[in-house]
Batch of 3 targets.
Target 1
Amino acid sequence: MSENPEKDPQDWTTGEEPMTGPQRSYLHTLAQEAQVEVPENLSKADASRMIDELQQKTGRGA
């Protein structure tokens, strides 16, 4: 059994599509707390990776 059953974002078949509305919203919330800028044209996979980074930085990650 894998410790992390989630697929790596780079392996997503839809990873290169534009980030979703919920990703954009949550990313902007995290970025505001972390005082960083969010590039506007992130892919789903890049947004997911940035969310993971910012969750660690802000302590919001589970």
Target 2
Amino acid sequence: MLRKIRLTVAIFFFVLITLLFLDFTGTLHGWFDWMAKIQFLPALLALNVGVVIA
């Protein structure tokens, strides 16, 4: 049960972050910019230089 919940939440975040990067008008940034920030912080803390540069 916990695996299904985790998978559902992961897919939900994946879709919304993908839409955030594909949104050229900027309308979704007002709603979902916090998700990009919380995804950036773990990449920075893990010192993934390639991810941070990309």
Target 3
Amino acid sequence: MIEIDRQYGRKTLWLDKAMITECLQNIFNNAVDAMNEEGTLRIHLESGKGKTRISISDTGSGMDSIQLQNIFEPFYSTKHKSGRHFGMGMYQVRKVMAAHKGKVEVKSKPGQGTTVTLIFK
């Protein structure tokens, strides 16, 4: 079972719905897979200083520095090679954020989970 902890107020952003939905779905899928279907998913929205940040954190397995360096590369996957993962999720996230003139930051440590932050101007 996965617990979802939402912490956000109200902020209007003009975004492409389909692109942002794909972006968030990729991040959520990665988080659920990393938590092995058990843990906590935190969603936090923060606005200020002309920027809006959406942070998505999980209590999953985390990634080491080598994995972090490669996660935006097309066809790179940290998941087991089961044949159902193509390694395009985070590559697409970065493309979507670039299309919205934003950026994506990822922080992670093995055994401590991962936080993906989408930053919109």
